[in-house]
Amino acid sequence: MREIIYIQAGSLSNHIGTHFWNAQQSYFTYSEDEEVVINHDISFREGLSPQGGSTYCPRLLVFDRKENFGALSVGIEMSEETDQDPTLLWNGAVLEVRQDLIPEATYQTLLDQEVDDDPDQSQDPVQDEPVQALHSSDVRYWSDFNRVYYVPRTIQKLPDVAEWENTEGNWQLSKDTFERYDTETFLMEEPFRLFVEECDSLQGIHVTVDNATFGAFTDAFLTSFRDEFSKLPSLVFPILSNAVPDHIDVDSMVGIRKAMNDAMCLRGFNEISSMNIPLQNPLNWRGGPWLDGLDLDLRSPYEVSAVLSAHIETATLPLRLKSPTALAQLCKQSNFFGNTPFAELCGAFPVINAELLDQHTYNFTGFQSDVRVERQYDEFSQGLKLRGALVSRYDSSIVSSLISLVCIAHVFSIHTPIGYPLPTSFPSFFRAQHLNAAPRRTTRGIVAPPRSAPVLSSLELSGAMPSLFERYAILIEDCIRRKVDWQVIGVGIDDDGVRELRNDLWTLSDNHRAG
């Protein structure tokens, strides 16, 4: 078996990951008559449920601040600490202070009542009533809409940051945090190694990270990983901060620091990761025809993470199919020229009109002032993944129309009738009402008809990528001219290091421009 270990670091990454794992859970089959299309052993390992039964758990490490785990964190702490007696090491009086428990999310209560929709089962019409679908206002933590079980070592809780501290974009602090956490918890030698040792043949790691809060932390993690597993591929989805290089106020130390941190993350991942797919912060997304099928709240982590997860899950679907593509092969397809370990994530979700598909396709990587609907840049390579009900009717015409619009040297495409699964945890933000959740309470429990949506996702290498690096290089040049005090900004490098970073970014831009 060729297993993959998954890493999630940061609040938005864990929102994305929760949707991702909920989708994976939807692929499980429980009847011999159902076709098995996903090889679950690639991403899951067998574990025990709270009731002591056998269950599949993600092969996953989740990093976040303690306060972001919600009731999931409390539950695990209780199970680990319930048997501890605080008086064992102290003979004096004990004043016990307990933090108020975070109440379980309403969705988790309803989830326990869900049963499979069985049309052969008769329902009592008196008790067959609708149940309100999950909405953004119901979600406070990413664990609120979680549907899977985790083994304890998956949960990696980092100490909370004081409310008055602004640590976003602090490269040195994030790096020091990893080194301290690894020393205190034996992270690489115990939790991570245990996942590795459970694998028959580990093929690599899949990483999603919030740059602003865990960028340098993840860079240090990958460096440690690379020191021991020099030949294993890594696929990284770094989420950039909301600091757009050419829109930063000249006096904004926080904005400059976050942009510099993004630049250092991009350079670091270039050196240690096989393939990297930068993602623009959802706060910087722009409206347009790509939103025609969605009523999307761009300020809701729950909703924007659902869109990103749908595209990430679809773009990487070949890794988990019954006859899978190897992670190394997927990385090589995207890094066709060998010196360009970056690609762009593009796609349309849901696919609602084949004839207008190009207008409904959005680039989640490039700065939107550079990437217009018309796709002004030539594309050098493209990995198309088209899935869902429209495939049988439109797959050839869709792919042909997309290829004809751009100059693509190398195209890799996969079509599958498997739609993107939409469990009840997924937002009901579709304008097409049949795609929205419609759970109802019956005598058997809460029933929700299975849903899925057609999706087009692609990992592309186009002329838009050089501009990404160019923007950061120009920002640094501007800061050098204005003699910015880098020690005050807190980027963790001196003047010479800043100039070296600028030169490295120009080199990255040139490499991706030349191919």
TrEMBL record:
A GO CC annotation given for this chain: mitochondrion
Q: Where in the cell is it found?
A: Mitochondrion
Chain ranges of the Misato Segment II tubulin-like domain? 2-113
* One BP term from GO: mitochondrion organization
> Which domain of life does the UniProt lineage start with?
Eukaryota
First-listed, main subcellular location of the protein, grouped into a coarse class: mitochondrion
Q: What is this protein called?
A: Tubulin nucleotide-binding domain-like protein
Source taxonomy lineage? Eukaryota, Fungi, Dikarya, Basidiomycota, Agaricomycotina
